[in-house]
Amino acid sequence: MNRLNTEFDEDINIAILDGQHALYLDAIPSTKLLTTQTAVGSRVLAHCTAIGKCLLAQLDDLVVLDRIGGGPYEGRTARTIRRWEDLNVELQSIRDTGLSRSTDEYEVGLSGFAVSLGPGPSGAPMALSVSVPNARCSDSRTEAMVRALLDPIQNPNQPGAKYHD
């Protein structure tokens, strides 16, 4: 978390899945004036945030359906995924690539990128995210944040990653 926050000066978060929500366990805020201000202990709907979708992707489809149902899901913005068929496609993509993304799905002007940390101490899925105002999501900066999140040396839980001594 510290490495990502130092490198990008954006909000870095860790969350677990709590029912239909991502529950934030830890957060390091950006020092910039325009920030996402994630509060430890806050909950956000899992189906429309990068960290929430990353958490859902760590579960079997039947478990996901049991937790959040088959939809329609609450629409926070015009870009929110509201149907199981669409969410399921996205969850499969996250499982394949190891990366979850959201742009304008939870709140207009907000992007997020998340990766799995695997099961936490309680066995619940955990995820790590970078939350960024869209104004700071240039292609090159987004690419750098995604590369840092997917770095197998820093995050050995990524698909194809190998543990390092």
Describe the protein.
This protein has a six-stranded antiparallel beta sheet, sandwiched between helices. Helices cover about 30% and strands about 25% of the residues. The protein contains five helices and six strands. Helix 2 packs across helix 4 (about 85-95).
Q: Could you outline the blueprint of secondary structure elements for this entry?
A:
Layout (H helix, E strand, L loop, with lengths): L1 H7 L2 E8 L2 E8 L14 E3 L4 H8 L3 H8 L15 H14 L2 E4 L6 E10 L5 E9 L5 H12 L15
Antiparallel strand pairs: 1-2, 1-6, 2-3, 4-5, 5-6
Helix pairs in contact: 2-4
Which descriptors apply to this entry?
25% strand, alpha+beta
In short:
With 165 residues, the chain is α+β, with helices and mostly antiparallel strands.
Order of helices and strands: HEEEHHHEEEH
Evaluate the radius of gyration.
15 Å
Span of the ends, CA to CA: 19 Å
Structural class: alpha+beta
Q: Strand count, sense and closure of the main sheet? A: 6 strands, antiparallel
Please tell me the overall pLDDT: 90
Neighbour order of strands in the largest sheet: 3-2-1-6-5-4
Q: How many strand elements?
A: 6
DSSP strand content: 25-35%
Which stretches of 5+ consecutive residues score pLDDT under 50? 159-165
Secondary structure tally, helices: 5
Shape: globular
| Helix share bin | 25-40%
